[in-house]
Amino acid sequence: MVRKKDQFWEYVEALDGRFICKFCERNFAGGVPRIKSHLLGITGRDIDICTKVPEDIQAKVFLAGGGSNKKAKNKETTSNAQEHGNATNLPRGLQQSTVPGIFNKKDKDEVDKKLDKFFVLNNISFNLIQTPSFKEFLTNAIEYGKSYKIPSYSTLRAKLIPDSKKEVDEYVAVVKKSWGIDGMHIDV
């Protein structure tokens, strides 16, 4: 049921029991609580977070009552306070985008320095940063989120590397079968 007094409907196009976000154009079922969660970046309502909402709109939604979802707000506040040693009522997405200095947000320069240090101290070729596999790994790790934990040495050595070797061996077997009965021919 759409209540006209809820100002959050101005950020979406209301359909019959659904809405389309005016910023990211995603189509969702639900009402005002899901719109607030979508715009504020609060997880837990089985809805994607809007990545295109302007910071001023996100702040406006929060100040107009977007933080009233106590379960989601408390979850975000508790985890954030534990991570950063502060207690705040702002949802995590709003903290990072609107007041980065206050909430210990690591800026891009600091992250870049950590990457530089990793390459230099481990004597890794700088060309690695241009490889599709490195970019794919970083993208997937970022999409997975903060809960991603790097596999242990044992897991890498005993499970992941042998699994990759098995895949390569299977591919090589397929290629060898394609050589035919006469053997491999190299045409120059």
From TrEMBL:
Residues 3-57 form the BED-type domain. Residues 77-99 have a biased composition (Polar residues). It comes from the Eukaryota. GO terms for molecular function: DNA binding; zinc ion binding. InterPro entries: Znf_BED. Keywords: Metal-binding, Zinc, Zinc-finger. Residues 68-100 are annotated as: Disordered. This is BED-type domain-containing protein. The lineage of its organism: Eukaryota, Viridiplantae, Streptophyta, Embryophyta, Tracheophyta.
